[in-house]
Amino acid sequence: MTRRTKIYEGKAKILFEGPDPGTIITYFKDDATAFNAEKKGTLNGKGVINNHISEYVMTALSNIGVENHFIERTSMREQLVKAVEIIPVEVIVRNIAAGSICKRLGIAEGTPLREPLVEYCYKSDEFGDPVISEEHALNFGWATGEELDEMMHNALRVNDFMSGLFHAIGIKLVDFKLEFGRLYEGEECRVILADEISPDGCRLWDLKTGEKLDKDRFRRDLGGEMEAYQEVARRLGILPEADVTKIAEHRKKDS
What we know:
By secondary structure, the chain is an alpha+beta fold. The protein folds into two domains: about 5-85 and about 225-245, Phosphorylase Kinase, domain 1 (2-Layer Sandwich); about 85-205, ATP-grasp fold, B domain (D-amino Acid Aminotransferase, Chain A, domain 1, 2-Layer Sandwich), CATH 3.30.470.20. About 30% of the residues lie in helices and about 30% in strands. It has seven helices and 14 strands. The chain has helices at about 45-65, 100-105, 135-140, 145-165, 215-220, 225-235, 245-255, and strands at about 5-10, 15, 25-30, 30-35, 40, 70-75, 80, 85, 90-95, 110-120, 130, 170-185, 190-195, 200-205. The strands form three sheets. Strands 8, 9, 10, 11, 12, 13 and 14 form a seven-stranded antiparallel β-sheet that branches. It has a five-stranded antiparallel β-sheet with strand order 1-2-3-7-6. A two-stranded antiparallel sheet has the order 4-5. A hairpin with a 4-residue loop joins strand 6 (about 70-75) and strand 7. Helix 1 (about 45-65) packs parallel to helix 6 (about 225-235). The longest helix has 23 residues, at about 145-165. The model has no long low-confidence stretch (mean pLDDT about 90).
């Protein structure tokens, strides 16, 4: 990693300059954080699994016409993506009440929602990614009305697709977070899906038992985080023979 130019390092990923103009290499770390990085830890092999799951989902979304920044996976921990200007408005889609919405509104966890609920959050670690309205985004210039419409439209398409994808392998898609970016090509600018889709940014519950198969295991000190992530990958047909020890070995190889 030292041979390349680092652009940015976040809580879960490192971005490097890509081999061609307009490209970036994303390196998936094993670092785990929660509550805006107030809680920190390391889950050996998490980066490898998240890289593979995100590759799988982003490729599938491309196949149904949801444009995103993914180009190809280049190693166990890295993928090549299109460089975009991230819009500082995160989109959360909820199918079942869980997490922060339960605390904010006093709703019991596990309450099914009548229809998918879309929320916007201002992307800011400093201020704790607060929930905002569409009017906030417009007034402060974080996104245009057309961009928000495109983000909402694609978020609901992603929800429809992923709900079916996970239901087919015995998993409930409770909620998930998406990020979008502006892709500049000449004088044209398009809003496309960016970042990653993995158990780090989704709530996934076993359809029969309700067992949590996502980052809530880390947030709530439930243990078995890597086993849960692996189970998601196994059901998707990704790395079926891998175990935590084998995956962790790639950390040194890719460093």
